[in-house]
Amino acid sequence: MSAPVPGSEAWLRLGREEAIDPDRPIIDPHHHLWLAGTPGAPWPAGRPAYLLGDLWGDTNSGHNLVKTVFIECRAAARPDGPDHLKPVGETEFVARIALASRDGGGGAVIAGIVAHADLRGGPTLDEALDAHAEAGGGLFKGIRHSGARDPHPEHLSIPGRGAEGLYADPAFRAGVARLGERGLSYDTWHYHHQNPAFAALARAVPGTTMVIDHFGTPLGVGPYAGQRDAIFLQWQRDVAAIAQCPNVVAKLGGMAMPDNGFGWDKRDRPASSDELVDAQAAWYHHMIDCFGPERCMFESNFPVDRRSLAYGTYWNAMKKIAARYSPAAQQAMFHDTAARVYRL
């Protein structure tokens, strides 16, 4: 019999853990949804579906997940029409699933949608934002237009599609500023070496709430393999600089992707919560020290991080990491920061 495939239910069952502090209310501010077979690394043969039943299968793993926020992943674009309105198809797709999540099925409620739009759109941007707002039915909270770009995409299982110099582009900065004017947030995903460029963006557009996803994605594969200690030292300095911008909040999670280089996605069993804590706690504590709990929120990044560990395992690890902080700090990181930033 062949070994279970990493990320599969059979593989994840090998690492299931009993939930710690199961009554604590949690908002998961970062997950995706998509149909089966749509292109998407790190599933080169076509990623398996991740829909409401799959999400509930994870959120009902023993922890008290009360709400979630969907983050864009180019899952269901409109097949035709103007380019600037094609991403609205994803909001329409997720809004239907979110409605079903409120119909008493017993799982976490999808309470927010962070959609995609090209923030360089200039005169067409407001039309796109209006269309997302209409399609979202009150769930549209902000935009993610990622800046992730690396000179070695051939080594990455999830290579970013960000344009060269995106964060410094005047048209892009104008679009980010427009989000703030409309009361919307800006999420981004980029790699660790782009943290200084992001800090410059945050300083240039202080009126928009910005969310940095996945710690700024410290890479650990290709030319970055074996460089974790040096990357960590530079990352510490860069994160401290970003935290000086009061308009930035941080998502803590999403660091079990294959490109982070921990190798859990290549094993015959998933990572345990203790392994995650041992490998990554220093990154979490530095981020919390810099931003403060009121500007931090734990995030699952599922199902992408499902390639490394089970959903309940991630939350057990967060509860172990959070144990040193006050009850109020824990309440912020597990629930209140996400509720405030995404207006849930």
UniProtKB/TrEMBL annotation:
SUPFAM superfamilies with a match to the protein in the record: Metallo-dependent hydrolases (SSF51556)
PANTHER family to which the protein is assigned, alphabetical: AMIDOHYDROLASE, BLL3371 PROTEIN
Pfam families: Amidohydro_2 (PF04909)
InterPro entries for this protein: Amidohydro-rel, Metal_Hydrolase, Metallo-dep_Lactonases
Record-annotated Amidohydrolase-related domain positions: 27-344
Similarity section: Belongs to the metallo-dependent hydrolases superfamily.
Protein name: Amidohydrolase-related domain-containing protein
GO molecular function: hydrolase activity
